[in-house]
Amino acid sequence: MSATDYGWLVLAFPLAGMLVTSFGWRVLPGRLPGWIASAAIGLAFLAAIGALVQIQDLPADQRSLVDSAWTYAATADLRVDMAILVDPLAVFMCLVVSGVSFLIHVYSVAYMGGDRGYARYFAYLNYFVFSMLLLVLAANFVILIIGWAFVGAASYLLISFWYRRATATYAGIKAFVMNVIGDVGLVIATFLLLNETGTVNFRQVFERAPDAFASNDVTLVFACLLILVGAFAKSAQLPLHTWLPDAMEGPTPVSALIHAATMVTAGVYLIARTHPLFELAPTAADISAIIGTATLLFAATVALVVTDLKRIIAYSTISQIGYMVLGVSVAAYGAGLFHLMTHAFFKALLFMGAGSVIGAMSGIQNIDRMGGFRRAMPFTFITFTCGALALAAFPLTSGFFSKDEILAFTINRGGGYWVLAIVGYVAAALTGFYAFRMVFRVFYGDPVPEARELEEGHLAHHDPANPMTGEAEDTDVGFPGPEHVIAERSRPMKAAMGPLALLALVAGAVQIPGVSDVIENFLEPTFEDSRFRDTAPTEGSEVIGLVVGGLISVAAIAVAFTVYVRRRGISLEWRDRFPAVHRFLEHKWYFDELYDAVFVRPAATAGSFGRRVVETDFVQGFIVGGATGVVRVGTSFARAIQTGFLRGYALLLLLGLAALALYFLIASS
Amino acid sequence: MTIHLSIVLFLPLATGLIGALLPARYARWAVLAGTVAVLAYAIVLLVDFDGSRAGLQYVTDDEWISELGIRYQLGIDGLNLFMVVLTAIAWVPCTLVACFREQDRPRLFFFNMGLAETAVLGAFMAQDLALFVVFFDLMLVPFYFLIGGWGTGDRVRATTKFVIYTMAGSLLMLAGAVALGVLSTPDGGHISFSLAVLQERSVSEGTQQWIVLLFALAFFVKAPLFPLHGWVPETYRSTPIVVLALLSGVLSKVGAYGFLRIVLPVMPEGSQHWQELFIIVAVFSILYGSVLAFSQDNVRLVVAYSSIAQLGFIVLGIFALEDKGAQGAVLQMLNHGLVVVPLFLIIGVITMRSGGSESLLRLGGMAVRAPVLAALFLLVTFATLAMPGSSNFVGELLVLFGTFEDKLVYGLVASLGVVLAGVYMIRVFQRTMHNRVAPAVEPREIGRIDLAAVAPLVAVIVALGAYPNFVVDRTEATTVRKIQPARAVAAEQARAPAHREVSAIR
Amino acid sequence: MDVVWFLVLSAFIFVIGAAGVIVRRDPLVILLCLELMLNAGNLALIAFARMHGGQAGQVFALIVMVVAACEVVIGLGIIVAMYRNRLRIDVDEMTELRG
Fold this sequence. Notes:
The complex is a heterotrimer of chains A (about 675), B (about 500) and C (about 100).
Chain A: H1 3-23, H2 32-57, E1 65-75, E2 78-86, H3 88-111, H4 118-137, H5 141-159, H6 166-197, H7 202-212, H8 218-235, H9 243-246, H10 252-261, H11 266-273, H12 275-280, H13 282-303, H14 309-329, H15 333-360, H16 378-391, H17 398-412, H18 417-443, H19 449-455, H20 491-506, H21 518-527, H22 539-566, H23 570-577, H24 579-586, H25 591-641, H26 646-668
Antiparallel strand pairs in A: 1-2
Chain B: H1 5-21, H2 24-48, E1 57-65, E2 70-76, H3 78-99, H4 106-125, H5 129-150, H6 155-184, H7 195-200, H8 205-222, H9 232-238, H10 241-266, H11 268-295, H12 299-319, H13 323-353, H14 371-384, H15 391-406, H16 408-433, H17 448-466, H18 469-495, H19 497-505
Antiparallel strand pairs in B: 1-2
Helix pairs in contact in B: 1-2, 1-4, 2-3, 2-4, 3-4, 3-10, 3-13, 3-17, 3-18, 4-5, 4-10, 5-6, 5-10, 6-8, 6-9, 8-10, 8-11, 9-12, 10-11, 10-12, 10-13, 10-18, 11-12, 11-16, 11-18, 12-13, 12-15, 12-16, 13-14, 13-15, 13-17, 13-18, 14-16, 14-17, 15-16, 15-17
Chain C: H1 3-23, H2 27-52, H3 56-84
Helix pairs in contact in C: 1-2, 2-3
């Protein structure tokens, strides 16, 4: 079997899993849907490995294969095939996506075990993985857009998975609409490229782009910016990020899979995929780098004050994706994608740990009410700390190597990029701080009642309620199930978290400056046309970067330890001393309020204006009224003739006759 | 096998008549059998159709009123193939659902259903302008009775408005058609209304301009587009749901179809003259329909205004006067019909579960006990908002691409409509299926009959989403040829703007 | 004899009949006047037939007589019906057709 055959198999397994779980929802007993879905993803992962093996057998310059299954739509000068592109980048993404997805599926088998929407959950989850794989395997812009929209739809469905929660459905709509905005951006960008290059296929577009566009051609910059709209909407970058924190309304494994490890990194993949265009349009690439940097700083500051455990991790995700966007925008493709991979590991792990803690808290997510879980949940504590260390880029963990490689690359570009790198280091310090703020506040300190109860051997139980609003709920379908699960008592969850913890710690080994270069080498064929191949930092400068990054990370963790463990209360002091700063951060820089004022209210006003004024006064009043008015005047004239007097009719008849006779007399003479 | 279009055309009417003569409880089954037979015939037609040919196939051509040059001329080409198929597909589930609901005077109801199908099929198949006008007006008759006789609420007012609007449009079109026939007759020649003949004869540009306007008014009312949609809110509110599915899903396409069949090929100069205006009307309809759909609380009206937006897209594609745009419009005509019919049938199911309430404020939480209903509704919702992966997306994509080509700004404005569609459709889904169960709502699974009506349609939608080229491939040759004359005119004017000024002065 | 005199006579009778239809209010008299008008027409038809030497005009006159007989039957029927319903026998009272 060739690499493309494996590519199709990668797509086929999740699709089949989705069909089986969705049509068999009534007949499949117990946890079987979960295992079927997990098996489907496991098979997809194996198929991805098959594709990897096949593609590594080929000579380096032939490692880009396209295979078309059928013509999707062909008319005039547009021809779209249902085709997949299998090259190192696609295989890399397939491996990361299917691998992490498999572990999260296994985790979900236990975590969602008590939920009444069990089969539906796994059908959605398989659908998501299928869509994500379609996205990374697409060989042209249209199929990419399809995958793009499908993951958006899956994200919507999973965010509103507990669909009787108004907060969840609202968050779902918000995410969906942001994604649609991104889709439209991509559609327009696709047209601009089609118009200039005559094709929508990735390979041809990239081949023809240097001839079709001058460097920094206005159309191309515009097209790239539209691609960025799509990428930023999906990857929650400024100013399209507001949906991601709300997306935490979904079940925790969903946050781990979609809103941390895979879907939200699609924007990074897209920029890497279309890198020939961005290199031709450096202005767009610079804008992308600036926005990425702004986002990573913004999100890191907000993560300092948020008190909802999942939302802290969500803001951290936004921030980390900012690093990746920065990386691929400054042509550090290998580094950016390396960080994508390590981030997938440690962020999925953090969410899984958070899910376990939330299980122990019986659904409560506020860290103000947590504390002292260290002894009650040793496994969760250790794995969560592994994830936090990687997130904080503690020396020798995976995040340490990947994040600092991006920053080293950025510095190496010189000039204004220095500023971006410095901002990146500042945010790295914040990252270490907020990562361990979570660890120290959840696991250290005096045990809360829930932790005590757990130490005594049984899980706390609260009446089911919406963690955001406190509304009472039941446990039927549409709300979370009655059971809460923690990793310590569930083998599938342990089985998923263990490997991830290991990977979070050691996955950096594949790419250590001066030691190993696995990712760069593997991705080389995809990015060999890059113009910035020579600007890669030297080993020396990378090592310096690593030392600086490591020092910052350790210092930040030490500060967090001081603030939250040794001198607790200092954070409250700070809050009281700078209330304006705190309020500003707590309102997330007022983005939601801004959008409400700029978009939502005007749209609603326009709608009610249309309904009240245009519909009633113009359409119904003027046009309908006008039309019926004309008819009414006409009919009233006709009615006036109809007197009902017989003699009147007779007279008219005779007059008519006489007129006719007169006419003929005159005409004939 | 030879295919006789007249059989397809009059079969529904015939079964309607038979049903009217049978005892009342058999009438429905006779008409249902008729619609199923038409569907079977349409499928045979679809299989047998030669997609590579651009001309008419299965032509029926007989004298009808020879003194007036009116012929009984039917034919199928890429343009109306899928319209006929859509009509056949749409009528079966709607009739099926109607069969299992209690009706007053069932014989009359189902006779009207049959007559309506014949009229719509006739309008799609007619290749003679006069014949088209006849069927176009004939469509009004059964729908007048269906809305007036079986409607709800203030049906008298709704029917009156509907009739006055469409009659006014029809009369204008009749005047246009007669004028076209008479004025195009060369000296010494014999008058003819056959579209093939009209296409060869030419009318002066000035004449074309006002005739096009007359046709456009009729088609815009039917479609409906802003600002001629005044009849829509009341009619949509009062019409029985199965009839509404047909009215919105199939009838609305006749107007758009008329542009491609008659206006563009026969009066290319006139069409080109109004291109800008029509595009503005279309774009405005898209925005206006979307914004209003967003602010409506009545489920039917959301779909009503979304139809205005969708028809805006179709007309935009047509008057982009570009191959991709027109192709997208043809595809979108089919797609919109295919999603609107199940949409209304599902709304019918929903309102049965909510004690008749159609307000979004009083619905919610239905998915709890009706997962299958929710799943079907979800798929239809996604198709309606043209999510990539649905055939509707390909249609809108082609329309937008066609528009971008020459009219980039209008295209960009129209793309806003795509975003808004996402908002208002997902809102309807959320407010009916999700959130807490509303007090008046009794969540219950979709019934077997409704399932049998809706599920096949959803299957067709999904299948088309995977392989839209099935439609594109078969329609392309004809569509390109239909807009060719108008494109040529546009291209010539773009090349020689100076010439135009000179002729304007003269 | 010149055909003109027949036509003049016919015209006189027609005008008398028409005037009667318009000014009288009694339906019975109106019916009589209608008969006058019809017969004026008959006269003209026969006169023309004589002039052209054809039969067609005379046949038409016969048909008109038949029609006139039918019309009188219906008209009288209506009058009797009105009488039975105790309505006033006056055409100005019958304005049901007013719009």
